[in-house]
Automatic annotation (TrEMBL):
GO terms for molecular function: adenyl-nucleotide exchange factor activity; protein-folding chaperone binding. PROSITE patterns: BAG. Co-chaperone for HSP70 and HSC70 chaperone proteins. Acts as a nucleotide-exchange factor (NEF) promoting the release of ADP from the HSP70 and HSC70 proteins thereby triggering client/substrate protein release. Residues 109-189 form the BAG domain. InterPro entries: BAG2 (IPR037689), BAG_domain (IPR003103). The keyword Chaperone applies. Binds to the ATPase domain of HSP/HSC70 chaperones. May interact with NWD1. Interacts with HSPA1A (via NBD), HSPA1B (via NBD) and HSPA8. May interact with DNJC9; the interaction seems to be histone-dependent. It comes from Crocuta crocuta (Spotted hyena). Residues 25-59, 164-194 form a coiled coil. This is BAG family molecular chaperone regulator 2. Keywords: Acetylation, Chaperone, Coiled coil, Phosphoprotein. GO terms for biological process: negative regulation of protein ubiquitination; positive regulation of proteolysis; protein stabilization.
Amino acid sequence: MAQAKINAKANEGRFCRSSSMADRSSRLLESLDQLELRVEALREAATAVEQEKEILLEMIHSIQNSQDMRQISDGEREELNLTANRLMGRTLTVEVSVETIRNPQQQESLKHATRIIDEVVSKFLDDLGNAKSHLMSLYSACSSEVPPGPVDQKFQSIVIGCALEDQKKIKRRLETLLRNIENSDKAIKLLEHSKGAGSKALQQNAEGKFN
């Protein structure tokens, strides 16, 4: 009888310790779950800052190469470029890096996708129109919506093999490249229009003199 009481007491002690360990483990797991949410929020915030930096640099560069910048005096242009360069320099002092965890297959897919885009970019000067069409087909391959034009199926399969964060970055890069091409097209058209208007005015002046 006495031995049974001793065994019962010992078992009770083990049960209390086990219960205490389970509670402690549960609390630690809950803390880690909360920290995981904060870690993801940190990555999202850092990614947002990274994107904002890219947008700011693109906007500054766009202003420096705008048609309006070409139509002001040299002195004003120099002063504005100094301000733009100062802003660009301050923007570049912000260093944000969000590393993406990839397996070997995802790493290889990213390299392949990047190489394809780089090859298209290298052809900008040779054939801007064809390069734009190619970029549109690459961008359509990254879109979840029904694309308005053709889709590069091979590129799509490569992008699907990339990590989700890399897929977003690839799409964002293509958007930026297409915007830059669109801005270049507008600048060229404006320049051609101004040249055409200038030639027409000169012709009218010449005709007026002869008449």
